Amino acid sequence: MNRDVALVDCGGANIASLRFALERLGVEGHFTRDAGRIEAAERVLLPGVGAAGAGMGRLTDAHLLELIPRLTQPVLGICLGMQLLYEVSSEDDTPCLGVIPGQVDLLEASPEHTIPHMGWNQVERRAESRLFDGIPDGSWFYFVHSYAAPPGKHCVGDTEHGRRFASVVNKDNFFGVQFHPERSGQHGQRLLKNFLELPWN
After folding, report:
1. Ordered domains of the chain (ranges, CATH)
2. Rounded distance, CA 185 to CA 182, Å?
3. Distance separating alpha carbons of residues 147 and 11, to the nearest angstrom
4. Buried b vs exposed e over 172-194: b needs ≥16 C-beta within 10 Å?
């Protein structure tokens, strides 16, 4: 597969495993904070692990806050990267990129549902999306997170952990997954492949 893919540097420890997942698909992901490189890429991945404030701080330092929301090619936010697509995170009341309306909030802990939500869980399809091509409804993916967005207008897949939350979202050319596709076996690999192969002008 011949794709020019930019991996935006917004922090986190999942970059190496994500690059390996792309390499298995025959794609080299370019880890960058360079605005010109990101704007010119055919596909953009916004990965991230950790706190919303730190992630937004890295994007601010790289002068990417205005660029990312106006990108016109397919963009995929992963884990924290998906959360940063929303208007705000209640984690330290952090303003985010504002691509998707709504707020990301802390999941509620209980004896049956520990926080962080860590491990395998199912994604239930709520709308059609090319990201799901070849992936059965109810497939299992690997999650590590404490904050999540509620299901809403742009939710195409959701998951339950104490409450239902949006685990796959899509608004125009922006996509997001709360789980880690690079750690989710064959279904995660297929989702990345589907994203890279999205038909787009």
Report:
1. 5-196 (3.40.50.880)
2. 7
3. 17
4. eebbbbbbbbbbbeebbbbbbbb
DSSP state of 99: S
Assess contact for 107 and 83: CB atoms under 8 A: no
**Which residue pairs, CB below 8 angstroms and at least 24 apart, start in 116-120?**
116/144, 116/145, 116/146, 117/143, 117/144, 117/145, 117/146, 117/148, 117/161, 118/143, 118/144, 119/143
The catalytic residues are: 79, 180, 182
Write the single-letter amino acid at 127.
Answer: A
Per-residue pLDDT of the chain (201 residues; tens, 9 = 90+): 668 999 998 766 578 889 999 999 999 889 999 999 999 999 999 998 889 999 999 999 999 999 999 999 999 999 999 999 999 999 999 999 999 999 999 999 988 999 999 999 999 999 999 999 999 999 999 999 999 999 999 999 999 999 999 999 999 999 999 999 999 999 999 999 999 999 886
d(CA 7, CA 161): 29
